[in-house]
TrEMBL record:
SMART domains: DHDPS. The lineage of its organism: Eukaryota, Metazoa, Ecdysozoa, Arthropoda, Hexapoda. Its main location: cytoplasm. It comes from Anopheles atroparvus. Pathway: Amino-sugar metabolism; N-acetylneuraminate degradation. One of its GO terms (cellular component) is cytoplasm. It comes from the Eukaryota. This is N-acetylneuraminate lyase.
């Protein structure tokens, strides 16, 4: 397996659509990468929740992944791709595709209909997926508010590390900072996915982050992290309050993905990313 030692800021990128017909707009990806690079964001997560990966068909997901892979390679940005949230044969196809095109890492949701209720069942599912991309660092996507899969992450991590050869860690999108902090361990990569608890998470030892607001106001996350790391706790708390107020203001305009995509369009009008797809429009 190739190594994975990324630390820092990774944006879960929006999938760009044409404003004309709603088709995937590959032409927006290179300027999108340039914008992130200019704002000190050194990684992207493709086809995640923010990227509406579960609203794309398999062909579109592969097309988008290939375009991001090319631009990320050109600009030396790490690219992780989310392959779950689909029927098992499609997840396998996406895993094989990610390995074939040289993705830096894959992230995988649990089975979303026959939901695993135990750590053992979740590990068994992910092991079957991971064997189709054996040379690619493999991560689990923990986002229980969407998946309703609520197994204990510290226990799961210990089991997965023993059973899945290319397993490297998780994206932890939960407000339970106590459980998240218990996941931290030397040799693991635990990505924080919850923007509103960034300050506390950095103070607890998190050093890797996949947060939607990195697309819109990365400078706020950078300030919070820098302030905590230099011991300016009050400044970090103040900036976290500012970030949370910014998030609340954005969410006045709709659900998470739709409102965040609107905020991105307002900040980056030259990058054509279009609207969200149904059912997010409803």
């Amino acid at each position: 397996m190739k190594g994975f030692n990324f630390k820092g800021l990774m944006a879960p990128v929006f999938t760009p659509y044409s404003t004309q017909n709603g088709d995937v707009n590959i032409g927006a990806i290179e300027p999108y990468v340039q914008m992130l690079k200019a704002n000190q964001v050194e990684g992207v997560l493709v086809n995640g929740t923010t990227g509406e990966g579960m609203l794309l068909n398999t062909s579109e997901r592969m097309l988008v992944t290939e375009a991001w892979r090319k631009s990320c390679k050109d600009y030396e940005i790490t690219m992780m791709v989310q392959i779950g949230g689909a029927p098992f044969p499609d997840v396998v196809q996406l895993a094989e595709h990610a390995e074939r095109i040289g993705a830096d890492a894959v992230l995988c949701l649990p089975e979303l209909y026959f939901k695993p209720k135990t750590c053992e069942k979740l590990v068994a599912y992910l092991k079957e997926v991971a064997k189709h991309c054996p040379n690619t660092p493999f991560f689990y996507y923990h986002i229980p508010m969407f998946t309703d899969v609520k197994v204990h992450m510290p226990t799961f991590l210990s089991m997965a590390e023993k059973s899945i050869d290319n397993f490297c860690g998780i994206k932890y999108t939960s407000g339970d900072l106590e459980e998240g902090s218990a996941c931290l361990k030397e040799g693991r990569t635990i990505f924080l996915g919850a923007d509103t608890i960034l300050c506390g998470a950095v103070a607890s030892g998190f050093d890797s982050f996949i947060m939607t607001t990195l697309n819109i106001c990365p400078e706020m996350a950078i300030k919070i992290i820098d302030n905590i790391n230099r011991g300016a706790v009050e400044d970090a708390r103040a900036e976290q309050r500012n970030l949370n107020e910014r998030i609340a203001s954005i969410l006045e305009h709709g659900d998470w993905v739709t409102a965040m995509k609107k905020a991105f369009r307002e900040r980056n009008p030259a990058i054509e990313i279009g609207q969200t797809r149904p059912p997010l429009q409803f």
